[in-house]
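Changelog-adjacent note: as of this version, every example in the card shows the full chain rather than a window. The one below runs 306 residues end to end.
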Amino acid sequence: YVARKKQRISLRERFTSWWGTRTKKEAEARKQTLTTAVKVAAVTLVLVAAGAFLRYAEGYVSSTRPTEEGHLVLVGVPGWVNWDLKARVVAAAGGDRFPIGEETAEVVARNLARMSWLDEIEVRVTHDAVRVRARWRKPVALIERGPSKFYVDADLVVLDYMPMAHLPIVEVKNVSLGLPPSPGAVFDRDDLAAAVKLIVLLNRMDAEVAPKNPLLDQIAGVDVANYKGRRNHRAPHIVLHSKDGTLIYWGAEIGEWARHLEAKDEQKLAKLYTYYKESGSLSAGVKYINLYDPQDKVPLPTDRYR
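Full-length structure tokens:
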């Protein structure tokens, strides 16, 4: 009995000793694992913080780095465009310097779209410039109504007024105005269209036969008060006024001479420019010049004006 009891105690002790040793090893292992995990977490946190700092530093450097800029360059500007008009275009674009970016061309084109003097606008951005190419609208006629003034080009597009003393812009008088459209819109009036067509034709003739002393420089206005004979069907429909007061009776609008039994348009042109060349001016002591009478003997012009 005593021996068996000692044997049982001995077995329990051995078991307890073995179990305790095993538990201690597991505790140490768990402690080592936990320590390793903490170290890994700490290292990971440091790396994340370092990455965040680097990203912040990069963003800070990028934000403080000077933005590249480009000058506004107007390409293919016609010779008649003066400095004041160029300055207005630059102002409408938003200035003469722009940050170079993906949206720069779109922004400049959108700004210039409101500029009535330009059409068919193209904007190209290079590494150091914002290049603008466009079709410039040239004013050919001036219309005054009370204190307001505006131009129209050959296509009857309205242009806001600004002094252009270097151009032969002719005032068109007594247009059936109505409510003039805003700049950039077409002012579609038949009497205005007839006057502008005549002005453009005289401009072409000047370029051909009188480039050094254009006849159009001596024309102050085109009066369309009697357009299509709306006031007096026997009186000339279109009358030009020279700057020294001479009246030039053109007659019906271009292309309508046969309907009103007038001289042909090319005959009217030939008579006008022959008189101008021989007299040296449109006055030469006369009060008026009759171009529309078909009975007058006139020299014939070249066929290209028929």
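Structural remarks: The radius of gyration is 44 Å.
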